[in-house]
């Protein structure tokens, strides 16, 4: 129930609907009980079992309410007959119909109000979960499957709605229905009611035995669902590779193994859950059977109970079965919902290791330099950077080159604060970047990555990520600077053309030029280009290189390059090997030293 309390905080904004639901449920329970009791006067009139009574009965307190009700009915029928109105039965039928009508009206109102609460909680929980997913650092997802996260925000949240939030419907209505019914049963016959209650704890114990392992089984089902969603995600992302290597069977077997496990776990869970209804209903009928035996003796042998009252009593007893069954099912749902809530709250309760400081500075401009001072960093156990130091003055371009795995892209991740340094510090204008808000720091930086990360939307909306308030003219200007307008203008709907999932309707070079256009539109003072031309063909590279040079004028740039032809005009070139600087200088200076840089140039046959 600890999870239930945490989920309930999402219901606070909708408490007015909860109050209206409670009020409606109170009246539902009241009229639900009265609808059964109202059958008694109708039965009395129907069987002609009313005794003439000329004098109105006197109220003598709740202890005598049963005899008072019976006496008042006799008086009412006597008065109607004396007035020449023989259609007393019609009055009784109208009474029954009215109580049932009111019961159903309030039942609808209760469900009407709870709908807003349930769907509101669902919406707010998903929104908060999405915000949390985007706010957590990239390192959080390095070992997590995307499918598992998708499962939590979709299926698990829906499971919470069906389990925990369905209890909000039952928490007032069903207990009140049982309470009002039991009070009525006590008033009819306390002796018979006490006898019934001997069997209820036994029934409750048997029902509880069925649901003990539901949370554990449900957790297995939800985890397996996350696993096969991950396989689907990986399959769609890598379909070309799978087909190219004839790997359909390998991935198909992985998926089938997962769905087979899901099949077994689901069968086990649902069969246990399905046992709840029949068990509670059978135990309820067993109680009714005992009632028929014991109550029948009171009517036929002892003559201590009126036959009409006994029929009403049986109706009330059966009336308890429905809410009792609903509460029983709800207890199973709680156990199942607990597993879903645990998975959702695991993300919501995760603290980001990259939180802004309470007094974080809002950095609005860049005036001096970026410095990495004795920076060391490791993703897990081994250091990727060791005592790394460089200075990038404002308006200058510093290029990082070296073999794959030398730590170049790690520099980009640290400057943008996707990760925090293990040792040392990174400063912007002399202040440690950990003292700035992440939002204001990243506002100063334009990023073009090696992989062209585009979204299933129009060209325009992909570019507007750089500046959401930009006009169409500004978008087109950014596309021109990135040499992308030449192909965008020929698309079916120009900048409003949808580019498909991950931009797959475009070539690699076209995608990269859109990524560059996005950075151009942002117009930041600092540019980080992480192998920005690696995906381009020779012609595109030439076009984009001109665009990049134009874009980098009067800007501070950190260029991570694999193709060394793209960085020969850099103000300083830093040659890296295994996370350390081995050479540093301008293009020609490094060539003259005949060292590592010169060898890299020779390997690329650069002239």
Structure in words:
The protein has helices at 2-8, 15-37, 39-46, 65-82, 88-135, 146-188, 190-197, 200-210, 214-237, 239-244, 248-274, 276-300, 307-348, 408-415, 438-443, 459-463, 472-481, 485-488, 508-522, 538-552, 587-593, 596-603, and strands at 369-378, 383-393, 397-402, 423-428, 431-432, 445-448, 526-530, 556-560, 572-577, 580-585. With 607 residues, it is α/β, with parallel strands linked by helices. Helix 3 (39-46) runs antiparallel to helix 13 and helix 8 (200-210) packs antiparallel against helix 12 (276-300).
Helix and strand topology:
Elements: H1 2-8, H2 15-37, H3 39-46, H4 65-82, H5 88-135, H6 146-188, H7 190-197, H8 200-210, H9 214-237, H10 239-244, H11 248-274, H12 276-300, H13 307-348, E1 369-378, E2 383-393, E3 397-402, H14 408-415, E4 423-428, E5 431-432, H15 438-443, E6 445-448, H16 459-463, H17 472-481, H18 485-488, H19 508-522, E7 526-530, H20 538-552, E8 556-560, E9 572-577, E10 580-585, H21 587-593, H22 596-603
Parallel strand pairs: 3-8, 3-9, 6-7, 7-8
Antiparallel strand pairs: 1-2, 1-4, 4-5, 9-10
Helix pairs in contact: 1-13, 2-5, 2-6, 3-5, 3-13, 5-6, 6-7, 6-9, 6-13, 8-12, 9-11, 9-13, 12-13, 17-19, 19-20, 21-22
